[in-house]
């Protein structure tokens, strides 16, 4: 979400026309590097549907993990909260990335800064056959929302089933080979990391998680444009084009595919290709590992962190269908370490942007006893961008144009009896000549779409 705000001094009567003109100026920011779309789809709000949110973070203790199969009793589960992470780091300042102690006890920097994690570790030199016959099922209480065209949101959680855990046919020595583990951020947007694993099969099932929802705990059935939802998608991001020789030419890349070979969507300037990839081992010339019809990275010339400007170049998007969607994701790199961020990104989003949410806020916040034209509280800022305490605009139905989801308790213009102390009602609001105020324009833009909930370019 891009929030543009400007301090404005009124020397004429404030009007919506001024807002429109300013909006047109701001829209010039978004003129380059958009994905193209069919003209017939321009009126469809393609950003509705599934939202895997970076802001929805579970306590890792609330994730439910069930391990079945050959290593059900021997696998260890280590839960790491932010508090545990910080304390461990303080007590063990010399333990850094690239050690099993780090994997067990610290949170990878690739995850959002508020996320905890669960690390599932298998026995030393685990059997390839036993790993392939081990399954992990994880329940995330919250992962984001289903959002319709009116910006109304329903909370959802997710089941993730991990199977076909492939460590490869050759046992190697050294870190990243001797112990296999799977690392799960408690914020699904932050993704999954493997150590000592080449690939896994991932099944995602989403469910309505709000107890007040009439479909509570029912699985979400992804049907395009049903009930006001656009077509939902999932993207696998950060597909590095590694090579064992260090050349970064994609000889031993990271990859993803939909399990039934459903076509993926790539960015116009993508670094991802589709095809078969295979690796061998000098330690055992007879051994090989081959993956067919995968989307794989060909180079590392992109910003490899969440929110990077060119992160989308190493991503592939898959449309979601039905109640269950399965993927194969992994790496052919000799280090057997990989991180995937998982988003509801949409590379093929239509280039027409959603109408901005415009709000008007005094320089200072209202407090009890304030006059309508003289608020005396703390200075307004980014956190007050949805207060909208000066707006008087009404839509044709007589209500504020700010979508319900973004309204703040105590500042909802359409609930005059519930306004916070000092906040004036609609009929009491006015702006005087020479008065200064903040005018916010909140709109998802190309960079921040990806950084938060979406991917475009």
Keywords:
nine-stranded antiparallel sheet, 2 domains, seven-stranded antiparallel sheet, mainly beta, Major cell-surface adhesin PAc, 19 strands, disordered C terminus, elongated, 457 residues
Task: Summarize the structure in words.
It is a single chain. By secondary structure, the protein is mainly beta. It has two domains: 2-33 and 356-452, no CATH class; 49-343, Major cell-surface adhesin PAc (Sandwich), CATH 2.60.530. It has five helices and 19 strands. It has helices at 16-27, 82-91, 100-105, 128-132, 446-452; strands at residues 2-9, 49-52, 64-69, 76-80, 117-121, 134-147, 153-166, 181-185, 192-195, 199-208, 233-237, 254-258, 272-281, 284-297, 316-319, 325-331, 337-343, 357-362, 436-443. Strands 2, 3, 6, 7, 10, 12, 13, 14 and 16 form a nine-stranded antiparallel sheet that branches. Strand 8 (181-185) and strand 9 (192-195) form a beta hairpin. The longest helix has 12 residues, at 16-27. The chain is elongated and about 80 Å long. Residues 12-46 and 445-457 have low confidence and may be disordered.
CATH-assigned fold name of the largest domain: Major cell-surface adhesin PAc
What is the number of beta strands?
Answer: 19
Number of separate helices: 5
Number of domains: 2
Which structural class matches the secondary elements? mainly beta
Proportion in β-strands:
25-35%
Please describe the biggest sheet, giving its number of strands, its sense, and whether it closes into a barrel. 9 strands, antiparallel
* Mean pLDDT across residues: 83
Spatial gap, N to C terminus: 14 Å
What is the N-to-C order of secondary-structure elements (H for helix, E for strand)? EHEEEHHEHEEEEEEEEEEEEEEH
| Uncertain stretches of 5 or more adjacent residues | 12-46, 445-457
CATH class of the largest domain: Mainly Beta
Q: Judging from the principal axes of the Cα atoms, what is the shape?
A: elongated
Radius of gyration: 25 Å
CATH architecture of the largest domain: Sandwich
Helix content: under 10%
